[in-house]
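Changelog excerpt

This revision adds worked examples to the README so contributors can see how folded entries look when concatenated. The first example is reproduced verbatim below.
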Amino acid sequence: MFNPVKLLTRVGDKAGSLGAVVSAMGCAMCFPAIANIAAALGMGFLGQWEGLFVNTLLPLFASLALVMNILGWFSHRQWHRSLLGSMGPILVLLSLYPWFQYGWSSSATYTGLGLMVAVSIWDMVSPASRRCDDESCPA
């Protein structure tokens, strides 16, 4: 049966993760390791939009991934998937705003982005399925 929420959460999660990583690739000063990967891939031109990527797009895509992972809970009812899927965007958002003043905030950003990509790959390899039928699942 076609479930539009499940399709939306699967696509939205991947779009949020990919968008957050590409947004981080645009800031060589903030994220030098990711920017070096972008330069090696021929995406060094992203540096000219550094402010837009870091201040607007990175939080927007991380928020999209967070919302899609929370909505995914209503589709599959697997708390460990929802928790792991939400930890990456939360780390990215925390590292951009309250933790930005600390030297280790870039490590938190790298960890959050890596977790977002890993959970997205996990979801493509082993898609979530509902663990209970409609009658036995709590509302």
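The second example, added in the same revision:
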Amino acid sequence: MAKLYRQFAPKMFGVCLRYAKDSTEAEDNLQDGFVKVFNNLKSFRNDGSLEGWIRRIMINVSLEKIRKQHLMYPVEDVAIYDSINYSDDVIAKISADDLMKLIQELPPRYQLVFNLYVIEGMSHQEIADEMSITQGTSKSNLARARDILKKKVQENFGEINAKNNYTA
């Protein structure tokens, strides 16, 4: 168990941190996740990688805690925002840590959809099923998260090289 924990804990902490408001909450999720991993290790069927199975448990533990905290409020569907292009100078100024901090500043529901779609690679249908929302709401939340991130990047790191077109 200790070897398994040492091997996967650093990477899984990063997964938990994406769904937590701070590192303390992420540590709690990591510990709870590994308790589930150890309790259910016999049910691992070798269908995929062990790391992928552990990652899924960490995500589910994090989502479960978010649901219990009632941080998932419904958001009405809105039109998808047009893309904004950033200059290479702006992109070069942003470190991974800076980007993670900006993502963690998103409202909880937007952060959750953003992480599931962009980082975990889930489809909008999978997100909708996991969060008990519509596919359109998932798309809307992602669009709003991206818009907020774009504004934060502009405020913190510089100018944007395109006009901002919104459709209704």
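Reviewer comment on example two: Residues 135-157 form the longest helix (23 residues). DSSP finds eight helices and no strands in the chain.
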